[in-house]
Amino acid sequence: MKRNYFVVGLIFLVFFVISFLTNILGPLIPDVIASFSLSLTLAGFLPFSFFIAYGVMSIPAGMLVERYKEKPVLLAAFIIAFVGSFSFGSVPRFSVALTSLFLIGIGMAMLQVAINPLLRVAGGEEHFAFNSVLAQLIFGLASFISPQVYSYLVLSLPKASGRANVILKALSRVVPEKLPWVSLYWVFAAITLAMVLVIASIRLPRVERKEDERVGALTTTRDLFKKKTVILYFLGIFAYVGSEQGVANWISKFLATYHGIDPQTRGADAVSYFWGLLTVGCLLGLVFLKLFDSRKVLVWFSAAAIISLTLGLFGSGQMALVAFPLVGFFASVMWSIIFSLALNSVDRHHGSFSGILCTAIIGGAVVPLVIGWLGDILGLRFGMLFLYITLGYILSIGFWARPLITNATVRLRRKKAEG
User: Fold this and answer.
1) DSSP state of 419
2) Domain 216-413 in the same topology as domain 1-209
């Protein structure tokens, strides 16, 4: 099939938008706490509202795509995300924020399910691996940029005058003077509305889904959940997303609480670097996976992430500014390794298993909430010690995983050639 570069570019843009909207909560949490006088537990309900949507929608989204195809699902996803963004921008209250984040999460879950098979078809199957890596880099770039956009808006809007640019002038008319961070939700609304118009105006290629891209019947999913291996890897993805979001969502608040670091500048930068280093780590991880067994790589990177977390929690302010982003660097390989080990540990029903693993993204809802709850009782530093449990579980996977197929390495290929 001929490659459709325009559609490939559009899919990369969708990846960018997903990440831009998804990974901004970390910088926002200190502002939300201050604006609405929240406890850490209540603040933890922000990521909970967003990521619980993945648990609710991942499998149904697959069924919707099977029935209605990609374009209607993409349109519905962006419309739902627009409604969520616009509602909170218009009515900036904590209760509305929870509903808003849930709607945005529903939209993002639908997008995640729809775009990967579309990328395979539009970009050509032989280029799918390369395009997938490139998409993840774009995803990471957006996560790096969104905290910088937040910093720019919250610092520039209060100073906006007659000579301000058009965007700042427009935002200053609709954003409450004391809540400049709400401007991000108007930006989200504009982006999602623009995506609705773009997708409505183009024709997408027909996608014939492979077996490992199909979400099976509910009976198949239920039968898979009876298997110990499936549950163990479900917990693995749960622990990874929980660790990722548990660090990213609380970095800025931790730095402000224990080291007096401004969350709107250096705190936001730390979150930005967390996502930036996570992206860079993906590239290094690709090299390591060509040289070593993925289980060993998982053990090494998990141990390094635990060490970095320890330095961030108990070191000086300057050390924390470096150590927390390094957790992102060492977390970079975890998702892909756990996911591949999981799929390579079963011999059938890969599509249904993938749906179950994507549902485990609810770890991003539960872990930040648990950290906030513990933080209210014992202090945020103690609350973040909960991450030792999730990272420790990920470390353990490297020891007990027994995949049916191991990753191909240069050394393994050499042995086969010699044999």
Assistant:
1) -
2) yes
Using a 10 angstrom Cβ sphere, with 0-12 exposed, 13-18 middle and 19 or more buried, the burial of residue 219 is exposed
Number of H helices, E strands in the chain: 19, 0
d(CA 91, CA 97): 9
Identity of residue 22: T
For residue 283, give the nearest of 133, 135, 406 by alpha carbon: 133
Give domain 216-413's CATH architecture. Answer: Up-down Bundle (1.20)
Q: Is 179 helix (H, G, I), strand (E, B) or coil?
A: coil
The pTM of the full predicted model, rounded to 2 decimals, is: 0.87
Are 349 and 28 within 8 A, CB to CB? no
d(CA 183, CA 362) in angstroms, rounded, equals 27
Left if phi > 0, otherwise alpha if psi is -120 to 50, otherwise beta: which for 317? Answer: alpha
Alpha-carbon span 177 to 293, nearest angstrom: 54
Q: Domain 1-209: what homologous superfamily? A: MFS general substrate transporter like domains (1.20.1250.20)
Is the pLDDT higher at 370 or at 176? Answer: 370
What is the phi/psi pair of residue 177, to 5°?
Answer: -60, -35
| Length reported for the chain | 419
First to last CA, the chain: 37
Query: With 0-12 CB in 10 A as exposed, 13-18 as middle and 19+ as buried, what is 263?
Result: buried
Count of beta carbons in the 10 Å neighbourhood of residue 290: 14
3-state secondary structure of 260: coil
CA atoms within 13 A on the CB side of 7: 23
Domain extents for the chain?
1-209, 216-413
Instruction: List pLDDT tens digits, range 379-409.
Output: 999 999 999 999 999 999 999 988 876 655 5
Name the residue with tokens 């039968």. Answer: 223
pLDDT, one tens digit per residue, over 353-379 is 777 888 899 999 999 999 999 999 999
Residue type, 39: S
pLDDT in tens, 262-310: 998 999 999 999 999 998 888 787 787 778 888 898 999 999 999 999 9
